[in-house]
Amino acid sequence: MLNVIDNNLYIEDVSFESIAEEFGTPCYVYSKTSLVNEFTDYKVAFKDYPDTNICYSVKANSNLSILNIFNSLGSGFDIVSEGELDRVKKIGADPNKIVFSGVAKSALEIRKALEFGICFFNVESLDELEEINKIAGEMGVIARISIRVNPDIDPKTHPYISTGLKTSKFGIAIEDSYQAYQKAAKMKNIDVVGIDSHIGSQIFELQSFEDSLVRLEELYNKLIKLDLNIRYIDIGGGLGIKYKDEEMPPTKIDFANKIMKIMKKINCNLVLEPGRSLVGNSGFLVTKVLYNKRSNEKNFLIVDAGMNDILRPSLYGAYHKVTKSVQSSDNEDFYDVVGPICETGDVISYDTPLNDVKLGDNLIIHSAGAYGSVMSSNYNSRPKVPEILVSGKDSYLIRKKETIDQILQNEVVVK
Ligand code: LLP
User: In this predicted model, what pLDDT tens digit does every residue of 349-407 receive, in sequence order?
Assistant: First the structure.
């Protein structure tokens, strides 16, 4: 997807320089070919388990064009809010391929999802189970549910994105879940269809997925004795990707082989909710060098993208590779690449080696396709940046730059 021609970095057949010139900076840029390849790799990896439903986790990148690409490849969707539901409706997603996750679904969200006829809810608490049963009763429908169980697995990832431990707020502890299932089985407007878990994100250790699925298998064997018609095992998302050149995440094939080995013993549909591993390495943030500030201690490159545009480095200390759009091998120096926001933590990348940097140069922040644009904010009253999709020689504006008027329009001045 990336090529260097005459020292210029290209995404597919379009140079980042021409994108910066046409659309302005900062801007997010995605490669359609890469998105398609990542999805196809998942499909191929799981081909020996035909009852696999890939439900792209919309929260990773919810741009309508990206959802539309996955939809046309046969993807389903994992959603967590009314807004995400409206997005997948808008691109014509099949309700049968939608799972609704999330820690606390509101009454409105439950109602709208039932009206649309989604495949099932991943229920996270007994209170929520009762709420879904109540609303389904009022609507005269049956709600399909699976219970998100917390298998108490440490996926050895960043604590902020680790969700399967006993101490986390997510799901119902696996040892308590049997009782929850018994309760659900007696509810008039509930059809218990599955078991769900999601242990965290950016996971490199396949053993964690295996340990978790083995616990789900044990639970499954107990539940079928309850005469429950469990037909879906949802293992969530979480597969890690390469951010640093030296990192070696597991391949989708290795991941699939581990999972399929266990699934073949369970007579169920498999649901996957991948986010990052479908979009992370297909996206880039292009930003311009505004100023270079040198002191005895530090060498700062101040760029036009800030933590409001890409939050991951400030929030998690996450690493994103930064390179120049026009490559050079002269005058290497080390820089802290920082944004213009009034926060000490507004740093994109520390001690970054870059060659021949001049004011006005465009820098490329790599692996920014997942949890990039979706986590951007209007902090410092900065408009959200445009998004561009590249396919071969063509580039399309898939989200316009927000205007300051749009930021201000919902506010009311009270005297
Ligand atoms: N399913 C559920 C229930 C989830 O909570 C998540 C992510 C996924 C699927 C998708 O996981 P993935 O395949 O992308 O790892 N903002 C953080 C990541 C937060 C992940 C939240 N849940 C980051 O920038 O690293």
Answer: 999 999 999 999 999 999 999 999 999 999 999 999 999 999 999 999 999 999 999 99
Q: How far is the CA of 301 from the centre of ligand 1 (A)?
A: 31
**Structure confidence by residue, pLDDT tens digits, 243-255:** 999 899 999 999 9
CA 393 from centre of chain: 27
Select from 41, 59, 376 the residue to mutate for testing ligand 1; criterion: most ligand atoms less than 8 Å from CB.
59
The C-alpha angle with vertex 11 and arms to 9 and 12, in degrees rounded to 5, equals 125
Can you list the domains of the chain with their CATH numbers? 2-30+280-408 (2.40.37.10), 32-276 (3.20.20.10)
Ligand 1 centroid to Cα of residue 237, in Å, is 7
336 Cα to the center of ligand 1, angstroms: 28
pLDDT band at 169 (very low <50, low <70, confident <90, very high): confident
Residue 217 confidence (pLDDT) = 97
Rounded to whole angstroms, the Cα distance separating 365 from 353 reads 13
Strand pairing report for 362-365 and 283-294: antiparallel
Quick one: tokens of 331?
């005058």
Mean pLDDT of 57-83: 98
Active site residues: 342
